[in-house]
Structure of Adenosylhomocysteinase:
Amino acid sequence: SHGSRSVFLSSGNSCQIQFADQKQEFNKRPTKISRRSLSRSISQSSTDSYGSAASYTDSSDDETSPRDKQQKNSKGNADFCIKNIKQADFGRREIEIAEQEMPALMALRKRAQGEKPLAGAKIVGCTHITAQTAVLMETLSALGAQCRWAACNIYSTQNEVAAALAEGGFSVFAWKGESEDDFWWCIDRCVNVEGWQPNMILDDGGDLTHWIYKKYPSMFKKIKGIVEESVTGVHRLYQLSKAGKLCVPAMNVNDSVTKQKFDNLYCCRESILDGLKRTTDVMFGGKQVVVCGYGEVGKGCCAALKAMGSIVYVTEIDPICALQACMDGFRLVKLNEVIRQVDIVITCTGNKNVVVREYMDRMKNGCIVCNMGHSNTEIDVASLRTPELTWERVRSQVDHVIWPDGKRIVLLAEGRLLNLSCSTVPTFVLSITATTQALALIELYNAPEARYKQDVYLLPKKMDEYVASLHLPTFDAHLTELSDEQAKYLGLNKNGPFKPNYYRSAAA
Amino acid sequence: SHGSRSVFLSSGNSCQIQFADQKQEFNKRPTKISRRSLSRSISQSSTDSYGSAASYTDSSDDETSPRDKQQKNSKGNADFCIKNIKQADFGRREIEIAEQEMPALMALRKRAQGEKPLAGAKIVGCTHITAQTAVLMETLSALGAQCRWAACNIYSTQNEVAAALAEGGFSVFAWKGESEDDFWWCIDRCVNVEGWQPNMILDDGGDLTHWIYKKYPSMFKKIKGIVEESVTGVHRLYQLSKAGKLCVPAMNVNDSVTKQKFDNLYCCRESILDGLKRTTDVMFGGKQVVVCGYGEVGKGCCAALKAMGSIVYVTEIDPICALQACMDGFRLVKLNEVIRQVDIVITCTGNKNVVVREYMDRMKNGCIVCNMGHSNTEIDVASLRTPELTWERVRSQVDHVIWPDGKRIVLLAEGRLLNLSCSTVPTFVLSITATTQALALIELYNAPEARYKQDVYLLPKKMDEYVASLHLPTFDAHLTELSDEQAKYLGLNKNGPFKPNYYRSAAA
Amino acid sequence: SHGSRSVFLSSGNSCQIQFADQKQEFNKRPTKISRRSLSRSISQSSTDSYGSAASYTDSSDDETSPRDKQQKNSKGNADFCIKNIKQADFGRREIEIAEQEMPALMALRKRAQGEKPLAGAKIVGCTHITAQTAVLMETLSALGAQCRWAACNIYSTQNEVAAALAEGGFSVFAWKGESEDDFWWCIDRCVNVEGWQPNMILDDGGDLTHWIYKKYPSMFKKIKGIVEESVTGVHRLYQLSKAGKLCVPAMNVNDSVTKQKFDNLYCCRESILDGLKRTTDVMFGGKQVVVCGYGEVGKGCCAALKAMGSIVYVTEIDPICALQACMDGFRLVKLNEVIRQVDIVITCTGNKNVVVREYMDRMKNGCIVCNMGHSNTEIDVASLRTPELTWERVRSQVDHVIWPDGKRIVLLAEGRLLNLSCSTVPTFVLSITATTQALALIELYNAPEARYKQDVYLLPKKMDEYVASLHLPTFDAHLTELSDEQAKYLGLNKNGPFKPNYYRSAAA
Amino acid sequence: SHGSRSVFLSSGNSCQIQFADQKQEFNKRPTKISRRSLSRSISQSSTDSYGSAASYTDSSDDETSPRDKQQKNSKGNADFCIKNIKQADFGRREIEIAEQEMPALMALRKRAQGEKPLAGAKIVGCTHITAQTAVLMETLSALGAQCRWAACNIYSTQNEVAAALAEGGFSVFAWKGESEDDFWWCIDRCVNVEGWQPNMILDDGGDLTHWIYKKYPSMFKKIKGIVEESVTGVHRLYQLSKAGKLCVPAMNVNDSVTKQKFDNLYCCRESILDGLKRTTDVMFGGKQVVVCGYGEVGKGCCAALKAMGSIVYVTEIDPICALQACMDGFRLVKLNEVIRQVDIVITCTGNKNVVVREYMDRMKNGCIVCNMGHSNTEIDVASLRTPELTWERVRSQVDHVIWPDGKRIVLLAEGRLLNLSCSTVPTFVLSITATTQALALIELYNAPEARYKQDVYLLPKKMDEYVASLHLPTFDAHLTELSDEQAKYLGLNKNGPFKPNYYRSAAA
């Protein structure tokens, strides 16, 4: 729910929030979900399918709900709820493999371990539960924190990783294929504990924060800060802040420069190829492709496809990005100029109804349509669910939509994010995200009280640079240091930050 | 067995061939296979695992051998042996999808259908049995031919496609997971038929040709020619020819210019990325990679990885290719100069023992090792099967080999071809191959007797150009025609061939 | 004098400014210049050599100073001072050629001509006087303005263009090869006119502004605003503003997004190749190059050289840019790691003493050293002016510096900006700059008084986007328009601006 | 005269050759030249303008013909005829600079010096006389040869280099700006010497060979072989051979693999940018370009322009090259589809009348037209020399051709080769050529008599590889050596050749 839900209810003392647009929100949900009786708002991202992580996970036939069976780890601890504790060994190996590609967190363990900067921290987290998250959690623990964790998505949990975490003593409440009721139950189990109260929140999507606002508003008295990962969650926080209802400082780690560049330009450069190949085996050479939107995501897609020998057209609304597309060697067109001739259509706009039925009616037979943007609104998929069109599921995440005359278009992931659904996110990108989260937690937890008010903050530039620097050894990359004389000449501190305050990642 | 097996036995009248090096051959086989008691030589490629095609195939629990159950198609025909005729509908859809990406064959059907250039042809074929092959077979049929078909690989058959072909009236003998005995039984069922004798052979690997030479040499009296697809099979044919034992004309379609460029440069440019991503999810950006060999395959790999932001080193033995690597922007090194620092090692040499144990001992933790060359000899995998090293299968086609100190390298496809095992071959590439095969069959079948002797021929340049031209409409590509004046100036026929005889694809 | 001179003297009533650091300033000047007795401060850029523009200019033997001869144009007007009015026809043709590549200004003439948005404007300008500037001046005139103009650089004037302008009725005071005294005399002639007082300033380098501050401070009473083009001039303005001494609104057009991207990334991508080729004819393929600094300029240089087959290393101080270099496929090193092996060294840092003598001592024979950064301080050229080294001028802008052992390095443009000295700036880039200047003048001249205070402003985002949009027709590029629904969804005005306020070009 | 002149007259005993098509030849000459009374055939290339080399040369005012003044070098030797012996020092420096970029020849001096493989060789040469040729000549001398030399082009001689050679004792007869009579006089002075008779010929264009055939056919009795550099000269030799009139073995070094790749793909990749930039200062980013022909030259041009952000269209007649263009990401079109929209037209076909008047009539205003192919016939320049069109020379090598409606196209080098006329050939490319020439001379001079008959030969593959290997150290490139086991496996000699006989460079 891209920017739509600012609605938090609180009966507590400090913050008064109301459900303002719940009704509107419900109308926006996909049919399948809205048929269920939802007693609570759930972030849309929490029900997105999440392809790749799931692929390593067992498809055990045991249909008993984890909530209905009691499990203990080898030390007798039972304060968790997961699919199957017996998968712990397999999960541990996955975690070890992930550790090898997350050197920054491992370095953080080493550098900061002596001082335990998170000693006393009681972190409640709600994120995807994957091997990479496990490396983060075990790092937080090594730095002194206690952690309780739930999943931010009902499909994305790697059961064997959850098992390994439970075996390692973490209180994890998550499994792949939770119901919506399970989803909130797990979150509640994380925070509603006798004799333990969180003092830090790590959230991805805002559902955990929402739950505490709604059910346990008084908890915020002890909470030192919120670290939020997602666009949606950050949007909620800004709206809370604007409304004067944000009770604690919050760190927006979504917009850190390093994360942005990696999540968008560099990651999409690879995942557009991966996502298309895994779903369609299409040969890129010689294909005509139109990419809608030339922001960082579009730039990444265009660069990759051009490099593979595709002929790429670009559409844009912003003349500055448009001029960049021209200079980068792409014909700037309106969609209707090329829609009949292209083999692949990719949306990267963040906008809605970019590819509408009228365009799809004019596509040629076999045209592939997919979305790399920030939401599932870019392709008007609903317009394809009409009686005269036949849908044929040809592979996982691949539908043929067939016109009466036999023409078929190939729709990927039903218009949802291709790179989340049909490709994997490299561990290296997740490492940057996880490191940023860890540093944000450390910063908020240790900052003198005056530093952060009840507002939403970006990660300090210097810490952003620190995240980047922790990832350089992976590439055996050697940074040059300024001499005193040079630092003075440039008016910079030798240790950074090296960029002015107005520097932003989003500049395209 | 890259160039090693020239061994055909014939008791027939026209050709005397002996098992010359069978013993040597057996020693070369991988352990697993040579443990089995092999009563006959089988091409190594026939037992290669064949990943991608298999992925769409059912994993039915029915363990009855197809040889033990009688099946009929809907018209009561039972002259086939496949897994399950009930899968025909599903297979038909796969064929229809493939048809959309094989426009050249479809055009061939249209253009040549009137004249039925293969009327009277009785073709026995032995190739991978996939949707793309089905499009070829149905094209041959549309051109007038009768076809009987077996699989050239015990793993690669798409059962549902075989079912669709059987349902369509083709005599197909193939299923996924044949035993070696099954393999030869199927081939025999194709040729050993009462009242039907083949007059054309389409082979991929030389096993079918070998079987006829061995068992039914007299059949060659009626056979007008052999079309052979593979390096191995072509090598066998050249050796037969050299030995004066080739009884009929043979067409080497492996070395057609169009096929070479596509199979090597363009296909590898895409499949190296696809193969690495599907197996390891590695992020390419910033990775240090060494590519051994800078022929067409190496050039494709290097170009793709460079475009994705990898830092690529090249090794070469040939100074001309080496100089090209330099001019293309790659550091030319010896493997030992960079082996400690690289993240990925890719072999593309066609040579043996390029990556030996000594190098693998010095690789860094997590180094990925894979082979894109022409054989499975490039990486000395045998040297890794020693007691002190632990093998851990982490995913299909992915092994971690772990040293005593904990270092692990990531070995893909056990050193076999990455792009066959771990990625898919785009239909477009297969379309070029299939079209070339069809044209070669037409040429050999219709050529006046004097044109071809008992020798191995390359596809005439003009037909090679014709294959290319049939694929241009896919790209909406418009060829320019020479004016009479220009043709005269250049000394060319307006319709080609446009290249001199000495033109070869292999030139790097 | 990158950021060093904030020194304006004013005896006027409104603004009290003092020479604060004149002494320091003088010490920073290159030896050659500081040896001259300078009675006034002159911007360093005003004496930079300026290669390309000069190359089309006559090298007439007439050594009479233009100040000493009276000339009239064909209408009898003599209010100008240029080299030779007879060259007007040749200059007119150059202007006409430039017009063809400056469609944005031509469009501006058409669109805005009806309303004459500069009616009443009296603009005094001090810029390079080239064909492109002439197109700007004639556009300003067409929009209603009166113009008087001097050169901002003593070498860069295209005499024939100045002649054409004079013939066309413009009061131009400029010629190629002015002395420093000439330089200020020309500026004075522009402003010190009976019965005419400027109400707008267009400056490039700040010298004109400085002169008015110093000599005619009361003029500022009537001046509505300053438009400043250069880094140096903008820096001066910010310092004035900081000191509370800026008397009128000023528009910093140097930092407009469009200009930045073009001046840096896109322009340098081409000019690095051009500059190196014209001076050294070096073949790029296979060359090892180190680029110091991975900002926009460095990114442009690296991309171009990589594309031409060079092997490129990068040095950086900022971990974020460093990580980008890694992801873009460049080895990140310290200069000393590669200094012995590289063939070309390029500085793009904006820093000082990046390439010092110690490094140059270790370069290999024939190494090319040049500067693409923002100042001439990056290479420590002074350190090469020692007795044991021999300088040999081998071509214009190319020196061999020879070590006692015979090793020579190839120093380009004596360490000054390679792209200004040794390549040309494409008209298209100048078109963007000129259009931005024109729009800034219109904005400042027409803005309601309350809109701009006595401060330095960036061009409003919307006008930046307008400049970009005016250049799209050159590429036959078609912008997509938001629907009402989409604009609402995104929270944007349909006509832009499309970027948030914090959007900046500098983001790397 | 691309392939037109097979005409050699011989009155000698061994070879009877006649002027077959002289008349036709004369009609093909450019007007300016054919106006002169030509008493002899001269290769067209000998009168091509030759831009870059000339740029370093003095434009001395001394108009005395070198033939009219007697000069001596410092040792009193007068057996030469050049512009001005006093320029020897300046020329020597140019030679020394060239030596630094011709490491292969320098290595050859070292390696072969001991054995003097050219001891006794008397070489007469006719090539461009540049610093690079000087390095070749001094290498030949160091290897034991005596040399006499003339220029193969009337414009290309670097006078100061000729002076340095004369000062060094070489008998050089050449200056910049020879008349046609001078041209043949110089050649004659080389061969018509008392007491000295050449036994080897090194030719570039075939004029020297022609002269000897015509004037001194008996000389061939002592001549061991001809080494010919140019397409034209090679063509003449093949025709002689075909006609049975070739008296001695000849080595075609034009078609060596290494030279071809460098002269075409790699050199054009750089020179297309350089040539366009130096003449027009055009910005490449966003420009629409059509490249006619996708052989090696076209591939180089396309790759470079695509890399610089141009949008490139390709035309082709050959479906195989066409398919490659598609796979490389270029739209394949007919010229008339894009002629109205493109900004730049580049011919690379080797064909004639590719860009005819009809197309030029439809080009848009400002369109740049140039030729990178093998002859000056590709653009129908003659069709532009009509009364209604106005020609305006705007710079050296740049003409505006202006239509009655004011539209102008920008024609470069009057349709002659852009890279010869408007850019420089990198020394590195010339180094490959010169090394190939030296090795060919050594081979022919030392080969046992039986090895070469009176025919035209390609450089043996192994020597081609040797040339390449001598250039690898420039790139600090390290070649891998085959182990004995690997060589055996591949069926190769460890020292090469590594490519089969049918391997050719031209395959693209």
About this structure: Residues 257-280 of chain A form the longest helix (24 residues). Chain A is about 40% helix and 15% strand. Chain A touches chain C through 59 residues (CB under 8 Å).
